[in-house]
Amino acid sequence: MINIVIADDHEIVVEGLRSLLENEEEIVIVGEAYDGEEVIPLLASNNVDVAVLDISMPKMDGVDLTKFIKTNYPHVKILILTMHNEIGFIRRIIEAGAHGYILKNKGKEELVRAIQALHSGNEYLGEEVTKTLFSSIRNANVYGEIQLTKREKEVLKLIASSYTTPKISERLNIAPSTVETHRRNLIEKTGVKNSKGLVKFAIENGYY
Length: 208
What we know:
It is built from 10 helices and 6 strands, in the order βαβαβαβαβαβααααα. By secondary structure, the chain is α/β, with parallel strands linked by helices. α7 (150-160) crosses α10, α8 packs across α9 and α9 (176-190) crosses α10 (195-204).
């Protein structure tokens, strides 16, 4: 038997996963959580083999929870189930110690296959995730694997130089709303959490 816990901040997703897996004879859902912190007592009170986690969760996100599990429950395999197929998210979660990464838009078969693979001691990446990884390698530039547009690079440099949105707007002659759109895109592409993370990324990757 494979004992799993499920964590996602959307109740409908948890219910859907339960419905998908409840008839799988070898898979038993021993716990469900709606944020990262709720997973911790489930791990302490159950013999968990695989933790199926979303990345974006309140209180403790998937990255921090993965690090916690790797440190405190190293025998538990971690499968990320998410809508995020950006290289920044993939890199962060794999570096944190996740064993598998699949997307929510895939069906039951891939989910079961991934759980079985992790329980057998293997790692598992979904087909679309694998394509994203290969694409990032093929398209790598001198700054690393993440591809940024010319304008995104300009905005990133100014953010790293402590320019505010109005100042960036004035400097680049673009609307403040456009600056914020670029900021959101940069956060999504790099997988960081906020502007402070963008500054760190810019310094580490030669954009500043």
